[in-house]
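Hi Y.,

Following your request, here is the sequence exactly as I used it, all 308 residues.
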Amino acid sequence: MTKSARDYLLITPCRDEAAHARITLDCVVNQTVRPARWLIVDDGSTDGTSEILAEYAAAHDWITVLPKPNRGARAVGPGVVEAFYFAYDQVDASTYTYVCKQDLDLDLPPRYYETLIEIFEADPRVGTWSGKPYVRDSNGELTPETAGDEMSVGMTKFYRVNCFEQIGGFVREVMWDGIDCHRCRMLGWKAGSTDAEHLRYIHLRPMGSSQQSIWVGRQRHGFGQWFMGTGPVFMAASAVFRMRDKPLIVGGFALFFGYLKAALAGKSRYDDMALRRFLRRYHRLSLIKGKANAVHQIDDEQADIWSP
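Below is the corresponding structure, written out as tokens. Let me know if you'd prefer a different format.
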């Protein structure tokens, strides 16, 4: 195939998303810049998702459904990355300019991907970017989910293919969607997210809620911070900050509890010492200067390292 400057490969791992699938499928079909190809990995769905996917694949030749053997349970973290690579390894990514891992529980505005591409076209150092997630509260009002400006959000990870390949792609662990952004920045790429009109989307399933509960999901995130290499001082500050999010107090406490439990159990940590040193320095700068200033400083410092 001939690569266009705006061609992007969309990969969606999913399992049992019948309640939300049509909303997301319609959103992508109606994008002003649609994906050149959309690979949807049906990771053992049993709730009618498979039938919905087959209907849309029959109607649109750029949508391909890849059935994956049922592992027996929904799996976050490593399971999602495994499903992503089930599709990614079947294509030649170099024939696309961009690649995106997108969930099947999102309500995206029609100019979402066009607007992201414009951000990449405006700055060649942008390696990964996303919009910002919102959820509807019990009154039907939209409220933002916590998502730092320095990270692209895990549910819509939009990448330049050459950046994605350069950082080694996703690690197969819980904190895959944090490690990738830090590896980007370490190599001179820029990572982030923007809260703007065409980049605000609705997350139909609360972030970090887990398939079991928000308590389990937040503990899992705390373990992920331990695995990634986050230090205890920054972790404590982050947990206190997250206590203002719903569920109030409990969510932040669960985050730190998951981190502490992993530390006391002597759980393994990410074995890239260079990244862990880079991460600790970024966290120290963030505590002293604030995240935004820390990111600007590091982006400036890493500019000479950038080599697309």
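The two ends are 23 Å apart (CA to CA).

Thanks again,
Q.
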